[in-house]
Amino acid sequence: MKKLIPVLVGLGLVIAAVLYFIHRPTADNASGPEMADIAAFEAPPAGDEAFYTVKISAKQLNRGMDSTLIDMDATLSQIKQSDTEYVTQWSSIAALNLMNSKADQAATTVLLGKPSVTTIEGKTITHYLAKDFPPGLTTFQLSFLQKIFVGLKADGSAPILKTEKDEVGAAQVQYAFEKAGANTKVTKTWLGYTQDSIKVDAVDNQLIYGLAPDGRLLSVVGTLTLHYRKPSPSHFTTTISVILKNHQAKSSLHKTVVNKDNLQKTDMTRATAVTRQIQNQTGMTYDDALKQLDTMTEKTDSKIVYTIFSTLKADVIEHPEHAGVLVSKILETKTRDEGSRRRLSAMFGALAQSESPAIADSLASLATECPDNFCKVQAIVALNDHPAPSESNAAKMIDLAAHAVDTEIASTAVLAAGSIGKKVDVPELSKALIDEYNDPSKASLKTAVVAAMGNHGSAEYLPTLKANLTAPDTNLRGSSVYSLRYIPGDDVNTTLLNVVQKETDKGVTSEALKALQFKNLTDTQYVDVAQKAATFADADLQQSAARMLVEAYNDNPKVARKALETLRDSTKVPNVKTYIDSELNAKPADAGHQ
Q1: Which of 265-274, 556-565, 584-593 has maximum average pLDDT?
Q2: Each residue of 232-266: pLDDT tens digit?
Q3: Which residues contact 92 (CB under 8 A, 6 or more apart)?
Q4: Rounded to an integer, what distance in angstroms lies between the CA atom of residue 205 and that of residue 160?
Q5: 202: which DSSP letter?
Q6: Of 178, 206, 225, 589, which residue has the fewest beta carbons closer than 10 angstroms?
Q7: Distance between CA 37 and CA 523 in Å, rounded?
Q8: Where along the chain do its domains lie?
Q9: Is the Cβ–Cβ distance between 296 and 339 less than 8 Å?
Q10: Which CATH code of 2.30.29.30, 1.10.760.10, 2.30.230.10, 2.40.160.50 fits the domain covering 4-276?
Q11: Residue 201 near residue 23, CB atoms below 8 Å
Q12: Contact 46/80 with Cβ under 8 angstroms?
């Protein structure tokens, strides 16, 4: 096990970003469970122990190079020990491969016999792990548990939209429910992530569950492929198959009730904090970081500044209660020389990455309590970036934008409100932003409000954004077209394509091409973009179109290759031709659709 932990920790959040256990069906069930299959399952009695066959695979694909991060074949044991509590543990592991290498027996044994308790109360799911669970595998285990519990029930015939936080980030997902005999089929679809650098695949984006009448898992099968734009184009495909094998009266594994109070309550914030703490190799302690923070000047080496920031960030992730020290230091910092600004940036940066909702509240408070605009803007930007804000934080930003005299404060606050709305459900946000946009006294904020609409990505903004596409102000047109990027729908894709075809302003067309990078188009639509791009008089605009098509090609060569070849053969710009040739001649990136 000593050899295994460094490997897992080395994978760290890479596996976390992939072990998004949602995923490709097994070869003998390639299309996933049919309705008849789900209907045929016999639900295990509540007191019985259920056994599931589990197959998990996570792969990274980069320029055609296929790396297996994890490949697992195991048996899972689960019992429903009360109406709201489930006990889950690995009962056997037949095979475990990490980074293309087979894990030894000791590495697999360490996972066995460690029960996890999951409670479902209303729509809230909480997981408790064994206190001696291997720290390098905490994110792995929690990610898996998150994907085998639904915790929702059908609310009428309409799908349920929800924002969920996982090891990758905050994702907007959709749950659709269908009856399958006495059982229920649930289709969970990933619509998108808050991070602009991550794009959900157009095809591999679903988990399909079979649930018993009491909500107990019968099966879950699916595939998720994520396309990462940064730091370099790469693709992660994770597959999962969890199928009920049999059930029986309690075995020796479940002789006694497992008390969750004897376990460690674990959410993704804590799990990733544990992983990051293990990964943190700065060699600087928290106390040392605070001391060096106080002496930081404009001449302090940038590497030391980064180490201070990294140490503070790791600490507030693991110990959110320490954030109060940084908040006090922020308020005590009155000067605004370069050294003071660097100190403030380091502290705000650490708080922005803290992942604690309470710290998000502190940032929202600093947005009004800070002594000057520099500090207030830093607080708002940090809240904008914070991964775990709340609905109340969005409300405070809207209120601040509505009443702030300073345009910079108001603009930054309204942008933050939009970003928060993409991470958590804020039912009143769409109406608030539309009202703000239509307020004649807020004319100076129109472009910022439109950008906030884009950050949020609600379909309620479509009438406003579409109307702006004919506005005389090119800045407003450009902001509006880019703000369509997160709004789903074929009609939105058509609108963006029409802008590319008809818009005469270079800047607005460029924004449309940027927005299309977030969309999945047909092969014909990509060719239409290529043909139009070849007629652009501006070489930079052609280059932008080429980049958009290359990203589509990296995601799915089969769909976008013809478009790239069309632009390459039609362009009169040598740099564009050379760029496309270099991409086509490279070994194609395989996103699983060739």
Answers
A1: 556-565
A2: 667 889 999 999 999 988 765 555 678 888 888 88
A3: 74, 75, 112
A4: 16
A5: E
A6: 178
A7: 34
A8: 4-276, 520-594
A9: yes
A10: 2.30.230.10
A11: no
A12: yes
